[in-house]
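FAQ: What does the model actually see?

It sees only this:
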Amino acid sequence: MTALEAKETTMPLEGLKILDLGTMTPGKYCTLLLADLGADVIRIERSNASGSPISEEDLILNRNKRSIALNLKIEDGRQIFYRLAEKADVILESNRPGAAKRMGVDYDTIKAMNPGIIYCSLSGFGQDGPYAQLPAFDMIFMAIGGLLGLLAGKNQAPVVPGIYVSDTGSGLMATIGILTALIARSKTKQGRLVDIAMLDGVMSMLSTVSGFLRRNGEPAQSETLGLKMPGYSVYETKDGKYVALGVFRPQSWQALCRFFEREDLVQQQWATGQAQEEIFSFFKEKFLTKTRDEWCQALRELDIEIGPVNDLKEVYDDPQVQHRQMAVQVEHPEAGKMIQIGIPIKLSETPGPIMRPAPAIGRDTGEILKELNYNEAQIQELRREQAI
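And it is asked to produce this:
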């Protein structure tokens, strides 16, 4: 059964109406998570983009959403947005500070017509501060926020991650912020502005590596995230692939040393200097004697932390990924059949189905306008004046 054949069910966020003005990846990722849990997410797209081919990113990030094409530079286009906003629970925008106000769709304007609105502004540096108007993308926030520096080996250049870490992290922060504000509204009946900065999200991630300064001004963790330990490293295997060895527990280290018939290394788990280099060399030679999958099977049987370094195709074929339904088949009217990433939040009574493929820009314009009580003649007039 494909994802789109799943039966409709009452979803946890059903009845929640969200207007998505997020043009960039973080905002689209935030509303993807909410749409997958049942929220009615309406993408507000530029009317002059109608007919554009759907991007590969949007094939997944815009699934389970609807799309309306509006020209917010025209008064009739703004009026349609205002009618949607009056009935909305949440609005998300991801422009530079001030852009929403220039379009007439900022928090103060919407709050005046819908006091209960939860309005999330997701920007690079936040709504204020000396950097607020600076242009930047994912890697810049990782650089300024310290994450990129932590990914540098000793005397080596930083390594840029293969995913957009600050995009994803800020999208998660926005999701948490929106849901928190909705809970607060249920208690106070008041809406509020949720100000999310991508830089702030990167900084928050440092909490997991003791990201604070001691009283002497030195970092609590001065080492890089590229921990230089034989038990916590990546090794090439006989078949030219790689395994990730993640040994922290003393019992795992002991089991590994015994497996290698090197009892003399049991007390050397945290060795430094020349002793550490010798262990590294020994491990590198040993891991070249078996294939990646042979090592995973052998060491997992000893309860040792190890995993294959998968390429993307292997990720989708992984039995755990398959079991958790994190690789699902979706059929899109334009792109055809594809395997997409599944829904990561598992709820016992209301698992999230993928009910709608990602929409072409403006696909649902007519349907949404009719929900606002526009008749066909009015819709055609809006098209003529290029408001939609």
